[in-house]
Amino acid sequence: MSKNNSTRFVSRLTRDTLALILAGGRGSRLKQLTNWRAKPAVPFGGKFRIIDFPLSNCVNSGIRRVGILTQYKAHSLIRHIQQGWGFMRGELGEFVELLPASQRTAQGWYAGTADAVYQNIDILRNHGAEYVLILAGDHIYKMDYGDMLAEHVAQNADMTIGCIEVPLDQAKAFGVMSVDVNRRIVAFNEKPENPQPVPGRDDVALASMGIYIFNAGFLYEQLIKDADSSKSSHDFGHDIIPSLIKNYKVVAFPYKDVQGNDPGYWRDVGTIDAFWSANLELIGVTPELNLYDDEWPIWTHQAQLPPAKFVFDDDDRRGMAVDSMVSGGCIISGSTVRHSVLFSNVQVHSFSVVEDCVVLPDVTINRHCRLKKVVIDKGCVIPEGTVIGEDPATDAKRFEVSPSGVVLVTPEMLGQSYRYVR
């Protein structure tokens, strides 16, 4: 059933759906970027945070009952949700609520993704949803979950898993599945050492996106069963899904973005290289991820800031930015910014050059600096005359250098204490 012919059907389904966003992970492959914040709270795209993307997908899909499961260093994530996502109307049954690990069962901390949901099962039941949509809180994409819900119902499935083809050499980081001609999943392996390619192809595998739809009653039954198993690691990918595929109907839903592209834009920004690359992709003339889409906006919290400003126009001291994204509150004073993303409240002082950089909020770059291929964490003050990105051996003595040569700089690496909420 096409989206155009099923608007009312999809709307009813989304109204009867509760979304849960798993946002408790650290994301250790992002190195020091997640020393003080959970991965979903990492800034992305000039003014957003990663979790804004699945949250915006929910709201834009018509799913307005959302729980966010938090655990690792959640303060900045909680603060962001409180400041930016309080516009839901409680009197209409809408909410974005935080579900931190709170020792609701004997386990204490969330032991795995399935355990995180199980520990809140009493809360979930009270909401009375017919379907439960479970999402990872750390991926960048735009998706109408209503289409997936409609397919879940049409297939009479017990569980539906969003999937996407990924290069075979990257598939070991995902749950890899095999499907029959009706897209029913017949095999599932979480992060296999030797992923199986898609039949007829030797270069791609079919990977789980961490997007699951369950019939609510069925989910609760399976969570209770899993919680009673002493042999389980209480994880959806390792335990729940493999236990279901033989006896229940578990189907795969091929991902399409909101423009109908198959496959659509989807990024796991789980490494410094991936984070840097995904941010700089946004600078392109027609990037795959369109942040200027009025029909599918990305919602977020943003401070009330003045416009970006560029000052001085002398031959040796010109404030300018080329092929870049520059957010509110930024001041480019007599310096050149080229092919870079500047988040809010970044100040670049005179005679500096910033190229191929991702500069997070509240950063000050002092005079006579040369920075190339650098990710600068929130709140850094770059000393006058600093050169980063020209000598990898020298950079590695002070900073984190990625396999592709991206340099990560944090306040601690500069001997500074961060003075803002992260």
Automatic annotation (TrEMBL):
<keyword id="KW-0321">Glycogen metabolism</keyword>
<keyword id="KW-0548">Nucleotidyltransferase</keyword>
<dbReference type="Pfam" id="PF24894">
    <property type="entry name" value="Hexapep_GlmU"/>
</dbReference>
<dbReference type="InterPro" id="IPR011831">
    <property type="entry name" value="ADP-Glc_PPase"/>
</dbReference>
<comment type="similarity">
    <text>Belongs to the bacterial/plant glucose-1-phosphate adenylyltransferase family.</text>
</comment>
<feature type="binding site">
    <location>
        <begin position="190"/>
        <end position="191"/>
    </location>
    <ligand>
        <name>alpha-D-glucose 1-phosphate</name>
    </ligand>
</feature>
<feature type="binding site">
    <location>
        <position position="208"/>
    </location>
    <ligand>
        <name>alpha-D-glucose 1-phosphate</name>
    </ligand>
</feature>
<dbReference type="InterPro" id="IPR005835">
    <property type="entry name" value="NTP_transferase_dom"/>
</dbReference>
<feature type="domain" description="Nucleotidyl transferase">
    <location>
        <begin position="19"/>
        <end position="281"/>
    </location>
</feature>
<protein>
    <recommendedName>
        <fullName>Glucose-1-phosphate adenylyltransferase</fullName>
        <ecNumber>2.7.7.27</ecNumber>
    </recommendedName>
</protein>
<keyword id="KW-0067">ATP-binding</keyword>
<comment type="subunit">
    <text>Homotetramer.</text>
</comment>
<dbReference type="InterPro" id="IPR005836">
    <property type="entry name" value="ADP_Glu_pyroP_CS"/>
</dbReference>
<dbReference type="Pfam" id="PF00483">
    <property type="entry name" value="NTP_transferase"/>
</dbReference>
<dbReference type="InterPro" id="IPR023049">
    <property type="entry name" value="GlgC_bac"/>
</dbReference>
<keyword id="KW-0808">Transferase</keyword>
<comment type="pathway">
    <text>Glycan biosynthesis; glycogen biosynthesis.</text>
</comment>
<keyword id="KW-0320">Glycogen biosynthesis</keyword>
<keyword id="KW-0547">Nucleotide-binding</keyword>
<dbReference type="InterPro" id="IPR029044">
    <property type="entry name" value="Nucleotide-diphossugar_trans"/>
</dbReference>
<keyword id="KW-0119">Carbohydrate metabolism</keyword>
<dbReference type="InterPro" id="IPR056818">
    <property type="entry name" value="GlmU/GlgC-like_hexapep"/>
</dbReference>
<feature type="domain" description="Glucose-1-phosphate adenylyltransferase/Bifunctional protein GlmU-like C-terminal hexapeptide">
    <location>
        <begin position="306"/>
        <end position="409"/>
    </location>
</feature>
<feature type="binding site">
    <location>
        <position position="175"/>
    </location>
    <ligand>
        <name>alpha-D-glucose 1-phosphate</name>
    </ligand>
</feature>
<feature type="site" description="Could play a key role in the communication between the regulatory and the substrate sites">
    <location>
        <position position="109"/>
    </location>
</feature>
<dbReference type="GO" id="GO:0008878">
    <property type="term" value="F:glucose-1-phosphate adenylyltransferase activity"/>
</dbReference>
<dbReference type="GO" id="GO:0005524">
    <property type="term" value="F:ATP binding"/>
</dbReference>
<feature type="site" description="Could play a key role in the communication between the regulatory and the substrate sites">
    <location>
        <position position="71"/>
    </location>
</feature>
<dbReference type="InterPro" id="IPR011004">
    <property type="entry name" value="Trimer_LpxA-like_sf"/>
</dbReference>
<feature type="binding site">
    <location>
        <position position="110"/>
    </location>
    <ligand>
        <name>alpha-D-glucose 1-phosphate</name>
    </ligand>
</feature>
<comment type="function">
    <text>Involved in the biosynthesis of ADP-glucose, a building block required for the elongation reactions to produce glycogen. Catalyzes the reaction between ATP and alpha-D-glucose 1-phosphate (G1P) to produce pyrophosphate and ADP-Glc.</text>
</comment>
<dbReference type="GO" id="GO:0005978">
    <property type="term" value="P:glycogen biosynthetic process"/>
</dbReference>
